[in-house]
Amino acid sequence: MTSNNANVASAALPDPVDLTHHLSRSTKKREASSVKSFYKYFAIPGIGQLAGGLPNAGYFPYDTLEAKVALPNRFKPTPIKPIDPPTSELASARISDSPASTRVVVPHDAGIVDPLRTIDLTTALQYGTAQGYPSLYYFVRKFTLENLHPTIPYKGGAEIILTCGATDGFSKAIQALSNEWSEGHDPIDEKPAMLVEEYCYMNAIQTARPRGISIAPVKIDDEGMMASGKGGLEDVLENWDFSKGRRPHLMYTVTIGQNPTSGTLSVARRKEIYALCVKYDVIIIEDDPYWYLQFPSAVSDTTPPPPAPAKSSGFPFLDSLIPSYLSIDYQGRVVRLDTFSKTVAPGCRLGWITAQPVLVERILRITETSTQQPSGFVQAMIAELIMGPQSRSDGGRGGAADGSGWKVDGWVRWLEGLRGNYERRMNAMCDIMDGGKTLVKAGRRGSLSAVADDEWAVVEKTKIYDFVRPLGGMFVWVRFDFTTHPLRKSVPLARLSAALWVFWTTNPYKVLAAPGSIFAPTEEIRDGDAWECFRLCFAAVDDDVLEDISHRFVDGAQAFWRIKKKEKIDELLEDDAPPAMLAGEGNNAGLAMLTGFC
Fold it and tell me: Which residues are in the Aminotransferase class I/classII large domain (predicted)?
């Protein structure tokens, strides 16, 4: 499409709706930083800079920043289209492939005037603009709007701002879009509320609750948040109890590999949910750290493929992914959170927000007087890794074998390889767990019916747990049926669940699973059926022990179902009751941090 045609197409799109009525009182009052407003003048060639309070870059103790890094093709991708049988090709590849690497160097001074092309310590370690390090901001913005989400359907498209990770992005979005509410001080009809999945990432809840925000859980199924039905989004919004405060105007959702349940939301379901958000004026905060980790091998024959994108990203891998809510966001009511935590490392504390420009500008004002911008060390290293040196004489070295940067195609190849490794891990764990769902009891031929001809025959099969092979993410959500346990009549089922959690931590099993109760956003859900569930993360453990640990999880569950004495349960729980399972909600925060991986 030519630029003229692109302009015509953009003009035909609707303007994003005005959502400023949802801005908090403090966010509406924020003004541009008077200090930051000077920064655009610093880049004028030959300017005598006496205005800013910047330290001298020549006194920074770092001459260069160097690291040994992977080449983008280190890991083997898995096929974009499902293969049948799905495990044949996957099983033939090791979880980890070639350790090939190169060296990245960020120079002290690149000697480049253009800030969008400059990657050096002189600028990266200096005070900077709140939008992010200019060269990295420019790359991420271009990649986001041209490759990740090329069809955002409102005029002018979205804007981005770099953040200190998705948690920081969420915190700023909540600060921008909700007023603090205090019981006994503020009227109940001003109390804000936020919609979340029935089970959700608890750091989001821990961020919202202290602001006085009510948490409104929405029922989920294997896909994720339900649009209709009892407890679905329409039911919650239509039948909202206004004695609890305002009808929710915010939604927090993880739509791919949902944490903790691993649900992956189809495009059809997204359209249903988005229509309801339009009807009830809800802003969608889409947290998508696992978007690149979508697993074709877990797709069933009955699952419809995502529709072909209206405009290609330029990469078959990206085109194959279920698109973001941004792809259907014709009103500009989606605030998307992305992160480098799963694609580079969590310690980077680097991510970005994508949203309509008016909202991003308000979040920019918050950033100017809080975090200001992410770490300059991190931004420079990632910029050099991907973009590489911008001139032959700048002294830098990028992440490609020839010293240039990975560029967009190398970054996408890295994402493909990561998806491949995590998909192989998922299948390795799930194949083992598939074999342990059922407890088999057998008896001798004389005790069986006449149809048994061999010495041993199956008497009874009892399914003790079940799970759905995840279509994306890093987790397997396992639901146990404690009504089949031999002690079900003498021990409360929730107590059996707590004992199982402790039993796994003992010899010879030594497995730590995350109890479902730490992901319950309300006491009602925690006390309802959360104790039936456990979340397993196949991402964190080393390659060479993943299968062994998976076997130990299964063996522990099978052995626990053979316990027939109540005294053994009492012994397990005597000194070591698991956190957040038998105790109150206040104990959730620490374990949620330990097992969140977000």
Answer: 123-392
What is the helix (H) or strand (E) element at residue 176, kind and residue range?
helix 166-177
Complete DSSP assignment for 490-541: TS-HHHHHHHHHHHHTSTTT----EEGGGG-SSHHHHHHTGGGEEEEESSSS
| Share above pLDDT 70 across residues of the chain, in percent, rounded to a whole number | 86
Which domains are assigned to the chain?
Answer: 20-44+47-412 (3.40.640.10), 436-448+455-576 (3.90.1150)
Would you say residue 61 has pLDDT above 90? Answer: yes
Residue 201 to residue 596: CA distance in whole angstroms: 7
94-103, 147-156, 512-521: segment of lowest average pLDDT: 94-103
Residue pLDDT, tens place only, 305-352 = 677 777 888 899 999 999 999 999 999 999 999 999 999 999 999 999
DSSP letter at 220 equals B
- Taking residues 454-465, report their average pLDDT: 75
Q: What gap in Å lies between CA 170 and CA 300, rounded to an integer? A: 33
Instruction: Compute the chain's Rg from CA coordinates.
Output: 26
Q: Determine how many CB atoms are found less than 10 A away from the CB of residue 47.
A: 10
pLDDT band at 163 (very low <50, low <70, confident <90, very high): very high
Contacts 24+ apart (CB under 8 A), 210-217: 211/174, 211/178, 211/179, 211/180, 211/181, 212/180, 212/181, 212/182, 212/183, 212/186, 213/174, 213/178, 213/181, 213/250, 214/244, 214/245, 214/248, 215/521, 215/522, 216/240, 216/248, 217/521, 217/522, 217/525
Question: In the numeric block, which tokens belong to residue 223?
Answer: 């896909």
- Check residue 88 and give its pLDDT: 47
Q: Which of 403, 399, 369, 368 is nearest to 386 (CA)?
A: 399
In the block, residue with structure tokens 């339009």: 278
CA dist list (Å): 403 to 107, 392, 412: 13, 11, 18
Phi, psi of 205 (to 5 degrees): -65, -45
Q: Where are the alpha helices (DSSP H) in 388-450?
A: 407-434
Burial of residue 493 (CB within 10 Å: 0-12, 13-18, 19+) is middle
Distance of CA 422 to the CA centre of its chain: 14
Q: Which residues contact 140 (CB under 8 A, 6 or more apart)?
A: 132, 160, 162, 352
In the prediction, which pLDDT does 586 show? 37
- 224 burial (CB, 10 Å; 0-12 / 13-18 / 19+) is buried
Chain centre distance of CA 459: 44
- Largest Cα span, the chain: 100
- Which of 41-45, 311-315, 317-321, 432-436 is predicted with the least confidence, judged by mean pLDDT? 41-45
